[in-house]
Amino acid sequence: MDRHKKIFVLLVGFSLLLGACLSLKQPSNKIDFYTLEYDPPQISGLNPLPAVIRIERFSVGPIYNTNRIIYRDRSFKREAYVYHKWRTDPGNLVAYLLSRDIQKSGLFKAALSHNSGFLSCYVLEGSVDEFFESDLGKTWKAVLSLSITLMAENESSIGKRILFQKNYHAEEACMQKNPRALAEAMSRAMAKVSQEVIIDVYYYLAPIYQ
What we know:
CATH architecture: 3-Layer(aba) Sandwich
Number of domains: 1
CATH superfamily: ABC-type transport auxiliary lipoprotein component
Helix content: 25-40%
Radius of gyration: 25 Å
Shape: elongated
CATH class: Alpha Beta
Distance between the termini: 99 Å
Largest sheet: 9 strands, mixed
CATH topology: Rossmann fold
Strand content: 25-35%
């Protein structure tokens, strides 16, 4: 190997080694994870019911069945952030918070998770139909839509088993245009919907125990 070839090989080797060292030192793009945070709704003036409710896992509409944060910036289009995600998918997040809120309300004897071994009187199922950031206007908004079904646990007739079904929708403005502000706005939307669900379930079941 002549002198010029040796120099070329040494330069190539040095470049590869330098590139490897730089790639090890440079941090990878960090992914930020978000969740919803709010105090359980405070509902007063109602007498507790001896009802035990089991909250099943919630299904999620196909567009939002992911832990990636979905946003809408134009009609007929949905996009997702790359480095900003929910800690879990919307179905798990909403079902957990609704179960927590029902339990903390003190209006029912117990609220059970889907995998509880205890018997329940009623089952609450649902789906997350919308869970996204709307960027269409001057102010960004958190958009949340749920469909809820309350069923009697031990009723054999399907017609009698389904007690009521209802859709819920809430939109809350983001204080800033970033994912953290979306999480704060979505928390307010979830708190509002959660209180509406709890009150509706209570007033539907209350006559049964009178």
